[in-house]
Every structure is written in structure tokens, then in C-alpha cells.
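Task card 7
Instruction: Convert sequence to C-alpha cells.
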Amino acid sequence: MPVTNQQVSGHMFLRQMYADSYFPDHVVDRGRAILLRLCERIEAQQPSDLEALYALSQAATEEFNSLEAEFEAAGSEIETVAREVIAEDFWFVASAYGFTDADVEELIATRDW
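Output:
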């Protein structure tokens, strides 16, 4: 299901990671896909409150957790810059769907990176 939110469809997810050769594009692509799937789930399920949004975002965060091994296998890792970029894009998603009061730490509370 394609994303219909215009803000999201025009957004370049993980831009800073793509711009840095330390992060392999094929793994960053998988991260971008996780964020787009999160958007699709938000559009499909239309969470009515922050708790419902957090459940969706934390599930997506767990998908990012599984990417750590792929980054490491490619000679990279989810380090400080990546953590900030990923967190910013989670907050962007929440904001784009009207959850401007979302707590970024709560959005990614299940992270292990």
C-alpha cells in the first residue's frame, strides 16, 4: 500500500546516512523501508492516541534492532550519528501524522542501539 501522506512521500528518509559512505546504502535502504512500513501501518491502523502510535513505532524500532548485525557485517554500525538521524525520522513520522507531542525517546523506547 503506497503512503498517501504528502509530507511523508516527499521526505528523504535517513538522508544523512545516505550522504555518509560509512553507512552502506543497501543497509540504509532497509532502514528506509522500515520507516515507510511504519507510515503504511499508521495510515492503515490510524492510531487514535500516543499509546497506539508508540506500539507501532516501537515495533518498527525492533526491526531497526535487527539491522545492527547487517550494518556490522558491512563494516558499519548504528552509532551516534545514525542514532540521531533515525530518531529524528521517527519523530518526523509522528509529527507528519499529527502526533506533534510524541516523545522521541518513547517512540524508540525498544531500541538497543
